[in-house]
Amino acid sequence: MESLPREMAFKAEIVKGSLNDVISELRARGVENLYVDGGKVIQSFLREDLIDEMIITRVPVLLGDGIPLFGKMDAMKQFTRQKT
């Protein structure tokens, strides 16, 4: 079973299920904002149109192979740049 380090117990949690089920449960608990990270996770949220704000940062470190932040999309997503 997956678990978080003890020091993260009140800062993060592991969730499982469909995105819409997880979002519904979190909303029922009063959660309004989520931090979503990781190429495949972000792609899943974008596919379901569940991201309404993005903060994109660059870190000047080579990480090697990885999962692209944005993969192939079924439809174009329109965002407005607020600031740079």
Automatic annotation (TrEMBL):
InterPro entries: DHFR-like_dom_sf, RibDG_C, Riboflavin_Biosynth_HTPR
Domain of life: Bacteria
Protein name: Dihydrofolate reductase family protein
All copies of domain Bacterial bifunctional deaminase-reductase C-terminal, residue ranges: 14-75
Record-level GO BP terms: riboflavin biosynthetic process
SUPFAM superfamilies xref list: Dihydrofolate reductase-like
MF terms in GO: 5-amino-6-(5-phosphoribosylamino)uracil reductase activity
